[in-house]
Amino acid sequence: MNGTQRAIEVRQLHKYFGDNEVLKGIDFHVDAGQVVCVIGPSGSGKSTLLRCVNRLEEPTSGQIFVEGVDICDDETDLDKVRSRIGMVFQQFNLFPHMTVLDNLTVAQRKVRRRSKSEAVEVARKNLAKVGLAEKENAYPAHLSGGQQQRVAIARALSMNPDMMLFDEPTSALDPELVGDVLDVMRQLAEEGMTMMVVTHEMGFAREVGDKLVFMDGGVIVEEGDPHEVLANPQHERTQRFLSKVL
Amino acid sequence: MKRSQRRRLTHLSLYGVLIVIVLAVAFTADWHTVKVNFFDGDTWKALWPDIVTKGAKNTIWYTAIAFAGGLTLALVLALMKLSPILGYRWIATGYIEFFRGLPALVVIIFMGLGVPLAFGWSPPGGPVGGGLIGLIMVSSAYMAETLRAGIQAVPKGQTEAARSLGMSSARTMVTVVLPQAVRIVIPPLTNEFVLLVKDTALLSAVGMQDNQLDLTALGQNGLNTYANPSPLLAIALMYLAIALPLTRLVAWMEKRQQRAR
Q: Do A111 and B175 touch (CB under 8 A)?
């Protein structure tokens, strides 16, 4: 992959919920291979921005390109674009009526049209990667939150995505379960996966992130090298936020 | 007086009232009349085996047909009601409100006798067939609402997860949403099934040939033939034998679902 290609490019993105303007003209990009962490107070629009990238939220205006493809263009096959973007949710959203293995193979088979044996092979490889190889026949309800989230990551990875979106992946977890999930994400980053991570984990953002974006009130207030931004925030709003969470 | 003593006294007096009522009924009832009219041995024997091989069989058949047809139509209606296209939503809402507002008996007579008379249409199986179509139309309106509620009870995150994996909306519905909705609606749908067992009694209003007689028609015929109400008690017991296991099943499933939550 071309190292300078923009994996995600967002231009002048506006998003309204009714009369409420949640995103007020966002310009944002993620380069291929980059790990970009987005932080900010709740209601700042960071999750909405992430969800616009695979159009789970419909942008009100502006442009979004994923690997150069305009995802708001009517001609674009949105399902195809989405199948290349892995997404991990705060609430895991595993399919509760399927075993772990079926969770990982269903989209491979129905969307990627892989054979059963190939899908199972890919699924097992990714389950092993997140350290849950022995859980393939379990149902999600029988797993801890941390295990469920790792299965969700493995499910996304099984589609061989070009990039991963993480929407507060550890916010619903008990504190002692957060580490396992972050370890998996760290490993992914080391392998060169392009990642956009909305998170409250400042440690993760500092150590793993290539870029840190601070959002507040629907705008990007500050962005830059995570060490710089966290240690020496330029903007007053960033300083105020960081003083509360660090 | 302590509270526990007071409670015991209340319980004792409640039991006392119950015993008095039971004794009063037992001594004042005309048991001979009851026996002759509802437990007439010859009449009960005469009903056998038609009450099972014909009456119960047809009642179960009518219920199965109305349920299968109603459920199929209900699924279409529920999906229409959830459709992003306004026209479909209007049609489904209009249909559901219309048929929920009418007495089932009116629709059954309309489809079994009215429409055939108006259009010279002969429904399959005669008036009963037309009546069954009417019953399907009515039951589908109720079941559509149950299904819609079940589909909407599946968390939105499930749809988002499926769509984010690249599944189309139709694929998401079939693979992810409906299987979960089915689990949610099984108890209420079993309830609809029990209601339907009893609603098939209305079909007898359009007239049935001998091999089409359901329990109600059989009981009514028996009442006229033997000039004795025993057949009514007999069919009542048959209805209970069909419905009770089902209502117990629903109660058990609801309890299990609550535990799982």
A: no
